[in-house]
User: Which sequence fits this backbone?
């Protein structure tokens, strides 16, 4: 068969594509369980992190998750309950628009929404090095134990922001990231939307 | 050893024909990932892996490849390796996969892959093409890592996440943003081309040559290099 004949070209392209697609499908199928386990661990560790339950590794995380956290029955979104250090907390998953894509967080707070326990980022597509810094401990640490009067945390972003973490836990205020005003503002409203969910009392 | 084909390919890809500062390929990813050394290392390892294996595969099938669908097949092979890499990262290195996000998929559009497939793999043996892809990736990695070290130190005050600058150091926000990579890529180009041009003047300098002819000769050589 001539190499430039239509039949050869079509056959060749078809066979090459088929072979590569089959290999990819096998690879995808073979790692499916592992990917699902990773995803589950990501959610579990975020919930534990938000609730302030320490864990050392994946095995401990999944054991502690099973023992201390109960997934609550909410229809529209995932939520969890746990009693940590004698206080009962509710945790919700909350998504919202960031600068580039959807930001999904896990937010834990007291059931009245007046005290934030902690926040973890589950998924985000913000600019690496700028908005992407919402995952950094100094930023998320500001929310830990922060008072949220009326179920609101004020995000100081843009010109108001100092770019340094706000250490005062009683003022209900956190500092945004300098150079990432939009992401900080979006993050602030996602946290507040999450607090709203908890305050509404859906987590039972 | 010094004049073997493998050595020449290595020298070409790392220095005389470096993908970044001579061929000016893959600049998009250079701007995007070099604000952090860790991401840079992972990204360039990914590019190296994909370039080497796709060059080898394409070279192996070059005698069967109809010219009409050459580019389509090239892209199929490259995407295959990149998606494979993405799947492996997601399964075995979920943290890294999360950090790199969409960048892994964008390796497909990195011109270095297509460039090596067209320029080298189309006319050489699979083993040499693998070596060519590997060294091209290393040439890319060398420049990117150098840039990312400076950007991370100035932009974050850290190196591989470890604090190196004093506590009071004011970080340069511009270093985190893509434009700063333009400055550094340009500076690397400037430095490399100056050094290379000097090397050529040195070689071309024969005692009998008239004094005025030397710089002119050097310029022609340099021009030839850029127009390649």
Assistant:
């Amino acid at each position: 068969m001539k190499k430039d004949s239509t039949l050869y070209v079509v056959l060749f392209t078809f066979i090459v594509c088929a072979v590569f697609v089959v290999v990819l499908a096998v690879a995808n199928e073979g790692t499916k369980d592992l990917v699902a386990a990773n995803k589950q661990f990501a959610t579990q560790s975020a919930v534990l992190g938000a609730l302030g339950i320490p864990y050392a590794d994946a095995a401990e995380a999944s054991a502690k998750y099973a023992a201390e956290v109960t997934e609550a029955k909410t229809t529209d979104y995932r939520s969890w309950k746990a009693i940590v250090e004698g206080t009962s907390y509710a945790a919700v998953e909350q998504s919202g628009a960031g600068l580039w894509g959807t930001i999904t967080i896990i937010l834990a707070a007291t059931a009245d929404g007046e005290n934030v326990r902690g926040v973890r980022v589950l998924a985000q597509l913000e600019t690496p090095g700028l908005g992407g810094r919402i995952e950094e401990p100094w930023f998320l640490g500001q929310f830990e134990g922060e008072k949220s009067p009326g179920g609101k945390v004020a995000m100081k972003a843009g010109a108001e922001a100092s770019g340094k973490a706000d250490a005062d836990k009683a003022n209900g205020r956190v500092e945004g990231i300098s150079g990432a005003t939009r992401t900080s503002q979006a993050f602030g409203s996602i946290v507040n939307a999450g607090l709203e969910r908890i305050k509404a009392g859906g987590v039972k | 050893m010094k004049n073997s084909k493998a050595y020449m390919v290595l020298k070409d890809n790392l220095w005389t024909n470096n993908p970044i500062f001579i061929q000016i390929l893959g600049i998009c990813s250079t701007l995007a990932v070099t604000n952090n050394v860790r991401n840079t290392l992972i990204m360039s390892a990914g590019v190296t892996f994909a370039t080497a294996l796709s060059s080898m595969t394409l070279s192996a099938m070059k005698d069967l490849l109809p010219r009409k669908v050459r580019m389509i097949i090239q892209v199929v092979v490259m995407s295959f390796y990149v998606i494979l890499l993405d799947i492996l990262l997601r399964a075995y290195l979920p943290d890294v996969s999360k950090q790199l996000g969409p960048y892994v998929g964008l390796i497909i559009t990195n011109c270095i892959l297509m460039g090596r497939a067209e320029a080298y793999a189309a006319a050489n043996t699979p083993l040499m093409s693998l070596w060519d892809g590997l060294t091209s990736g290393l040439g890319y990695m060398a420049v990117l890592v150098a840039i990312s070290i400076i950007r991370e130190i100035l932009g974050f005050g850290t190196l591989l996440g470890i604090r190196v600058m004093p506590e009071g150091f004011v970080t340069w926000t511009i270093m985190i943003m893509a434009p700063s990579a333009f400055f550094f890529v340009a500076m690397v180009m400037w430095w490399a081309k100056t050094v290379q041009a000097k090397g050529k003047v040195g070689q071309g300098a024969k005692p009998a040559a008239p004094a005025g002819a030397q710089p002119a000769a050097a310029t022609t050589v340099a021009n030839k290099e850029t127009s390649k």
